[in-house]
Protein: Phosphoethanolamine--lipid A transferase
Amino acid sequence: MKFISQYKLILLVAIFFATFYNLSFFTNVISTYEPVGQNILYICSLAIVLVSFTVFLFTLLSSKYTTKPLLIIALMVSSFTAYFMDTYRVVIDDEMIRNSLQTNLSESSDLFSLQLVLYVLVLGVLPSYFIYKIKIDYRPFKKELFFKIGTLLISLSFIVITILVFSKFYTSFFREHKPLRYHVNPIYWIYSTGNYISKTMNNGPIVVKQIGLDAKIQKTTDEVDKKELIIMVVGEATRADRFSLNGYKKETNPLLKKEDIINFPNFYSCGTSTAQSVPCMFSIYNRDTYDYKKGITTQNVVDVLINTKEVKVLWRDNNSSSKGVADRVDYEDYRTNKNNTICDDECRDEGMLVGLDNYIQKNKDKDILIVLHQMGNHGPAYYKRYPKAYEKFTPVCETNQLEQCTQEEVSNAYDNAVLYSDYFLSKTINFL
Structure:
């Protein structure tokens, strides 16, 4: 095999990235800027800037010992990000990285598909093997430094000149269409990784700030001997606009509508990932001021209840985990049949109710808060989220490859999962 300079290799890989890994980016660009007239030049200029910036970045980090490993890592990770962006229309930001690092095997298996294997094989493994085998011609240090500086200057010049030539377009692009940048592969996931590290990295051991140490349960004389039992259900990916209680056209809440309940239709989560939403929900901070570091270094409302020494708290989880909320209280994992007695294809939310009466009886001298963290409507395999008995709306999408199904099939599978949540919530109310 012929020798190639590392900078030519970086250029080839940059072109390869722009051509095959950025379908999501260019699809979104074309939907924003119709490819007619001068817009065609603008779109082409984006490709030039993308290639040039990728060359600049990898050249900056290149050396005799880093070029191959960096390119191989970038290709492998980018093959995964390309798949998820192209298939599920997601962006790989720092919260998505946190979510992926905190996921478990069961959640990961829901995302496995032949298409994912093909993406990783064609866009990850094969080009990585090519880079592994290729021979790079490394010049003497001074010459290598000269070519490195030259490559950096040339790539930077292409970026600057292109932006200056189409300055009006880029002013609009950067100011009015910021979300388009989130789809750039590999640049954005590299940026997000750095952002994730900066938000997560701690200087020394984590010290949890205690709050509510003076918290007390205030009761009147008549209430002293009366103990309270509260069950809080933490949902998962269940949209308010799919509840018939909120006016949805399909009857997804046939049981809840018969209960004496109060429904709050104008309610919002802290985010779209479990790793963000659950800790934020229980924290002292609101949606605008909460962040990961604050969450892990400050006690939450569950801790405050424990501080009163008058409340017993139990967290049962049929999802990935409590994301740190229940680290200091009684916690039980209901994802497996070790604890959950109601399992078929997967363990069901209603299994978390089994045996609660025994727990309540053992702690009847205290107020009790029980938190049940649902699997709910965890996607994309919505068809797995309910027993067959709740497949009321048909036909359904029976794959995690949602793009292979019609909108009706995806909606039906999702709505059936809401229907099962309706049953679970009604069963919880009746248990109480």
